[in-house]
Amino acid sequence: MWMIDSSVYIDWMRAGRNPTRIVRPLVEAGQLVSCGLIRVEVLRGIVKPKVHDEMKALFDALREIPVTTSVWSRISELAWQLDRNGEVLPVSDLIIGCCALLSQAALITTDAHFTKIPGLTLRATVPTWR
Asked: Which of 21, 52, 66, 88 is such that its CA lies 20 to 30 A from the CA of 59?
């Protein structure tokens, strides 16, 4: 299972690459999940309506990891533990990281903050999928 950080989608679009084409094999295989925060971070910055609609359709097709009360508790505990160790991460990264952990998904990201989250599997690129 895989989850792609919002910064990766945004970087692809800034480089003129189409995220839906890049992730199509993972989507078709049912191997890509997301969370609401990633959806919001990506969609809010898209200016062109056609691109917005295409990305919205992509997120609609993915299984979204819900942020329930128990997930908020886990996020809070992780934040508290990391803070005590001098590692203060943005709450948005804690939410995304915990959603990836709970879904047992490897997180595709280039954001170094995620290396501070214990047990989180990270990748820098999308896997080749057949």
From this structure: 88
pLDDT for the residue 11: 95
- Residue 34: DSSP 8-state: E
What's the pLDDT at 45? 92
- 3.40.50.1820, 3.20.20.150, 3.40.640.10, 3.40.50.1010: CATH of 2-123: 3.40.50.1010
* Residue 129: pLDDT band with limits 50, 70, 90: low
Alpha carbons 25 and 100: distance in angstroms, whole number: 19
pLDDT value at 130 more than 60: no
Q: Which amino acid is at 80?
A: W
Tell me how far apart the alpha carbons of residues 33 and 29 are, in angstroms, rounded to a whole number: 11
Percent of the chain with pLDDT over 70: 98
